[in-house]
Specification:
Number of domains: 2
Shape: elongated
Number of strands: 5
Distance between the termini: 53 Å
Helix content: 55-70%
Radius of gyration: 25 Å
Order of helices and strands: HHHEHEEEEHHH
Largest sheet: 5 strands, antiparallel
Strand content: 15-25%
Length: 206
């Protein structure tokens, strides 16, 4: 009875390890490539001159009347709708009587929408230029559950990726332990990795 039970567990470990890995290939590639880019950011920002900066796109007149919502969050949403940028956003800092700044998120370059009530103006700027480097880095840091389909779905997959990574570690150790011929070499690799991680973590905490 022992062998069939272990055989079933082996089967499910291998199957889940394989198919979750295949499903999450795009996300793992994004995190792998973007991590390399972040580790060598000077190659791209200085060498390829891909440094981004805010560029003003347009100024739009905005003179709301009594219909303007009272809460800051509702006001921000109304401003974004006025400039046709309705979507996931965040108010920057504490709005004042003279200015409200809203960041409208986009992986091809965030928008900075500034409402200046005294001028009856909304100034729209964007973080530019967009490039494959900036997009993949933006995808790397894409997070949080926001009430928009793409952002919500991405957040769910990020959680699935995190949980799957933990499972891959556990299932990988299990599958290694089940292979008697690989236990010595695998054990050396496992211990070496743990020791190196511990030493570097301690040094980085100093």
């Amino acid at each position: 009875m022992g062998k069939p039970r272990w055989a079933r567990l082996d089967y499910w470990m291998r199957t889940l390890h394989l198919y979750t890995g295949l499903f999450l290939v795009p996300w793992m590639m994004v995190y792998a490539v973007s991590a390399f880019c972040l580790n060598h950011s000077s190659w791209f920002t200085e060498g390829l001159q891909l440094t981004q900066k805010w560029e003003t796109l347009r100024e739009v007149e905005f003179t709301p009347g009594s219909e303007l919502p009272q809460t800051r969050e509702e006001q921000a949403a109304a401003i974004l709708r006025h400039v046709d940028l309705d979507g996931p956003h965040q108010i920057v800092g504490t709005p004042s009587a003279s200015e409200m700044v809203v960041i409208r998120y986009s992986v091809t370059g965030h928008y900075r929408v500034t409402w200046q009530p005294s001028r009856s103006r909304v100034v729209v700027a964007r973080f530019q230029p967009a490039s494959a480097y900036s997009v993949i880095n933006a995808l790397h840091f894409q997070h949080r559950y926001r009430p928009y389909f793409a952002h919500l779905a991405w957040a769910i997959v990020v959680d699935a990726t995190a949980l799957s990574t933990v499972f891959w570690v556990i299932s990988g150790i299990y599958l290694w332990a089940r292979q008697r011929s690989q236990r010595l070499l695998g054990g050396i690799c496992l211990i070496a990795g743990l020791v190196l991680f511990t030493v570097l973590a301690i040094l980085l905490c100093r």
